[in-house]
């Protein structure tokens, strides 16, 4: 049968719960799809027509009862729970009323406490507001104090302190600004202060950039001047050393003696001076001292630069300022390179190089003390630019110069620039290379100047012995060139064996050596003596020798002048030795090294030409005297007792010549001259016999010539004491030039002339005679008894044995020829 169950049904008005009795049947599946199937079934039962249906469907109902058992049990539990809730509602109502009573009691008790709490909270809020106001006031006070301090620093031009105050305000107070207005004010004022500081310091830096150019030029002049003073002190010390060495050299009495001073090259720095002991601080201190003494000079002050760099670093613009500084200094250096075409470079070169020197001295100081303002590669780049430009300027200017002195002045200043900047570790080799490159041009110009001066000195000389009235003249013209023949000071007035051109030529040559040394020294090359020696040999060989040769070839010199020139050559030979020693000493070479080996006399050509000129003039003078030979009677009846007239005239002239020449001419030159003159006399005597004008001559004429020869031989014997210690050897040496004429006269006066053909006798007594000349002369010889056509009158007479021997000699000589 069915079970009684409470069923909840959802309707449109809520949930309706009712108790119903389920039949024991199970709905069909088609009825399971419709929620109200069981109502229809119940109504069918009531209508009396469902029993049979139930019986038929009983298995289905049983199956349905089994399936719905569990949901029905659950529904029963739910209904019981609803009943429990209905009982709980009554409990809730009682609890609610209890709570309402408790709430009323609580409200009455907590009212005063809530009022007190409200008062406390209000007071606390006021206190917080007051604390915030006090904090804001303190912040404003600190802010205004910082701003006031910044204003004071700005007014006092203390930009760094002002920036620090502004930075502190920005860092500490700007984030905690109590009011937006104050914040906006700070955001506006802080950049304005920084911009003001940047503008102010930029203006100061611009002014410094203008002033540093003047200060750098002054600094460069001071530094180069100090280098020049140091070089001058070194030169003075070396001069004292040379003087001491020369004194020791002459006291030794020999040019090959070992010097007492050091035998090595002089060093460039031999002592440390207080003015040169430091580094660039000395140059800067000297420049500062000079600036303090000159009120118009701004002086060198790097403070504005360091201040500007520090301010930009504070502003965070350090890298930008570095670039700005480098670019401006680079532009400034480029402007310093401009060479004015209106001013000669000779006048502006010192300012030009002093400006560059001061520029890089300043840069070196900034590099070492600027705290990273400029780096070494930047300075090196600037220096490479400067060196390239200076090399270009020097190349251009040197190529235009045609005066050696101008080139030397610029070279000296450039070398001083190199010395100055080398102390600051700048590479100056390219500058020195330019100087070395133009070394040949400088010496060519110098040789040209010396050639002009030598020509003027030779043209102005009267070629008379130089008179010196005072000792200082002797010292200036003789001792200074070491051309004296004795260490004993002569009595004054002193007549020198040379003319006025000799000291002039020595001065010109010495000046050439000193100028050459000055150009070659301080140029980076240590051993300069071989180069200086080469140019000195050019001066002596090309200029002096060539000028004297032109003077000789001009033909304007007389005998006395030619003799004086020959005497000058002997003095110049000693002067040349002095010049080479002087060049060696200036080059720092010991004398014992410089004097090694035999040096050929550089003026040998002009010396030989001078002797030849003197000989030529003397021969011409002798020829004038020999014109008197026209009066010789070649077929005289008796020999002249005192010889021919010409021989006496020649003897007087030669004696006068020797008395003058022995005072000024060297012995070897005088010997050569006398030998040449006597040889010329011998040749002229031989020429008389060979002359076509002499058709015949007799023994009386030969005896007259014999007397003439004895006169000349007597003259040679009288001068023998001038040449050697032995009078016999000196006489024989001077009589040698007369030997040919003497042997001819001896042959003609011999009783047996045929002995000439005897080899032994010829070698001993007639070795200077030539066969052809003997034939020609002997054919003209006739005895005094012989007359023209005399053979017709004496055809049967006995022939003279001498004449017979002579004829046999002539016949045999003709057959041999």
UniProtKB/TrEMBL annotation:
Transmembrane segments annotated in the record for this chain: none
> Is Cytoplasm given among the entry's keywords?
yes
Q: Domain Exocyst complex component EXOC6/Sec15 N-terminal spans what residues? A: 76-224
Disordered: annotated span: 233-264
Record-linked Pfam families: EXOC6_Sec15_N, Sec15_C
Q: Which InterPro entries match?
A: EXOC6/Sec15, EXOC6/Sec15_C, EXOC6/Sec15_C_dom1, EXOC6_Sec15_N, EXOC6PINT-1/Sec15/Tip20_C_dom2
Say if the entry is tagged with keyword Transmembrane helix: no
Q: Which UniProt keywords apply?
A: Cytoplasm, Exocytosis, Transport
Q: What is its main location?
A: cytoplasm
Report domain Exocyst complex subunit EXOC6/Sec15 C-terminal positions: 430-780
Entry GO terms, CC: cytosol; exocyst; membrane
- Compositional bias, Basic and acidic residues, is annotated for 233-249
BP GO annotations: acceptance of pollen; Golgi to plasma membrane transport; intracellular protein transport; pollen germination; pollen tube growth; vesicle tethering involved in exocytosis
Q: Where in the cell is it found?
A: Cytoplasm, Cytosol
Q: Report the function annotation for this chain.
A: Component of the exocyst complex involved in the docking of exocytic vesicles with fusion sites on the plasma membrane during regulated or polarized secretion. Involved in polarized cell growth and organ morphogenesis. During cytokinesis, involved in cell plate initiation, cell plate maturation and formation of new primary cell wall.
Q: Which family does it belong to?
A: Belongs to the SEC15 family.
Name the UniProt record assigns to this protein: Exocyst complex component
**Organism expressing this protein natively:** Musa balbisiana (Banana)
